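Risk register update: the risk of archive-format incompatibility is retired. Evidence:
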Amino acid sequence: MELLIDIIGWTGSACILAAYALNSFGKIKADSLSFQLLNLFGGIFFIIYTATKGAFASTALNVVWVIIAVAALIRMFTKKKSF
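Archived output:
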């Protein structure tokens, strides 16, 4: 079980790092679906990892991170297109 939790933590790190790096190097935009999904899943994986490790300050930060990602995704899918 400990190995699974570590894999979840490393996967969360990879997702958030990938989102940041790809955005910083101009490969994806901050308002893209891929950027928001990487942050969403990275945040979810970090919530699992940090809660399991008892790092509740980090858990709280990642809950907010996920809320921001979900809000951005909702905005993306409900935004009215102007023609």
